[in-house]
Amino acid sequence: ITSDAFDILPLKLHPFSQSTPTGLDCMGWKRHIPSSVIADGALDKTALTDDVGSEEDLYEDFRSSSHRYGHAGGGGEQLAINELISDGSVVYAEALWDHVTMDDQELGFKAGEVIEVMDATNKEWWWGRILDSEGWFPASFVRLRVNQDEPMEDYPLKVEGGKEDESSSGTRRFGMGQTTKDQMRTNVINEILSTERDYIKHLKDICEGYIKQCRKRADMFTEEQLKTIFGNIEDIYRCQKKFVKALEKKFNKDHPHLSEVGSCFLEYQTEFQIYSEYCNNHPNACMELSRLTKVNKYVYFFEACRLLQKMIDISLDGFLLTPVQKICKYPLQLAELLKYTNPQHRDFKDVEAALNAMKNVARLINERKRRLENIDKIAQWQSSIEDWEGEDVLVRSSELIYSGELTKISHPQAKSQQRMFFLFDHQLVCCKKDLLRRDILYYKSRINMDDMEILDVEDGKDKDFNISVKNAFKLHCRDTEEVHLFCAKKPEQKQRWLKAFENERRQVQLDQETGFSITEVQKKQAMLNASKQHQTGKPKAVTRPYYDFLMRQKHPTLPTTLPQQQVFMLAEPKRKPSNFWQNISRLTPFRK
């Protein structure tokens, strides 16, 4: 479940946008730097009043500056795009993220799809077309193509005698033997290097302009707060500095199209996995920043940090989104580089391998993001269960593997009971349906799956329980020798459960190998959100008809808010949709 997008408002009322500003390569408005941050990091309160007036005056000054998010270049690139469009040129952009919408005035697309930009007069929302569909889409969800014109032919064709047939191929040349495709490869190489250098500058500005100043103000920030806000961005900065040096070594200044940069991505593919920690923490950073900026002194402090560092006119949360955007851009850049790389080029195989490697990195991060989104759903589910006892599900689990109805047979008299079972990683939760209202579940017990082994039971008489069973299996505790007997209604249901138990163990092992975990902050926040929803009388879960109704509500002609990116959803390979709601939707508690 993704959080609602936030409105883009002037500074004082401005909640933190979940959309990525893409114009981080041009300077915005310039202002006199207030002296609220001094050399030793102390907040000079007299400066705030003597130099620029009261806090209220400072706020009004900020408001009058039209502090808003803009697309690339804060207007320059936007103007250039509109000039191209008005001249009759076709401008293409590639989607960085999925834009999922039920509004017929908006243009939906998948990450990696190509959109024809038809109008870019608005900074936040552009009008575009894919095939015969047109509509608004968020400008920050796309990356303009480096090469707007496609070459007529990839490379000159060979004819009899081994000579190139230039007249038939239509291949243009630039300079000494450089083809159109070589020039376009040069364009992509230059973009990769220039955006990497800009990115390093932004990381440096965050580390030196914000983190360094915040650490000097122990009266305003604890180390835990700084860790929540900035995550491991300092580790990312150190990694990217080494990466850009490796790229520059591989750059051929005389003939850029001959540069061999693929090996650099292969060398750093493992180190790029540190982005997973950063992206997982990012929602917590947004929440903490939102909480702090309700207090004026933090708003002014962060703005003073930005101005002192001479950073562009984008607020802190915008800068903190750049790593999320960056890891998403790599596969798109490499895909375009591969497109303009001759198969005989020395860099071809490395670029091809690098593209697959960066897709795998993005896929890993995307899977972790999906798991984190699931914890809100699990918290909501638990809040709907009556008479819950013991620790929260999220203490040990983060994924619903399978659920369904089974007959549980217990000692000593082989008593059978119909129960609903929910298999999470590490535990199996047992619930009972209400006798009168079948849409209510009561918590009964849980089984620790880490101590269990699964035993397939043949149809017939069971020796342990001395009864005849059908479609049965057992959970056997290795330590206590405790045995649980279960029966499914049909053979195929039994097989699904046996497969689910295999998947549960596989998931646990994978989490151990990849180091996946949920922070205590994330667990507490999910349970807090679920309890607040329950206390305010909201439905225990959003039913599909109600969800579809919400999604059908119309925006004004121009959408007023930017949605949250479906981060890391690359066009290829496509991720299988989560089966969480398919599992949950079979349960009556989620139906009114």
TrEMBL record:
Please provide, in alphabetical order, the Gene Ontology terms of the cellular component aspect for this entry. Answer: cytoplasm
Q: What is this protein called?
A: ARHG4 factor
Q: Where is this region: Disordered?
A: 155-177
- Domain of life (superkingdom): Eukaryota
Question: Domain DH spans what residues?
Answer: 184-368
* Key words, A-Z: Cytoplasm, Guanine-nucleotide releasing factor, SH3 domain
Question: Gene3D superfamilies, alphabetically?
Answer: Dbl homology (DH) domain, Pleckstrin-homology domain (PH domain)/Phosphotyrosine-binding domain (PTB), SH3 Domains
Example GO biological process? intracellular signal transduction
State the compartments where it is located. Cytoplasm
Which is one Pfam family of this protein? SH3_1
Domain spans labelled SH3: 88-147
GO MF annotations in UniProt = guanyl-nucleotide exchange factor activity
Regions of biased composition (Basic and acidic residues) lie at 155-166
Q: Which residues form the PH domain?
A: 399-506
- InterPro entries membership: DBL_dom_sf, DH_dom, GDS_CDC24_CS, PH-like_dom_sf, PH_domain, SH3-like_dom_sf, SH3_domain, SOS1_NGEF_PH
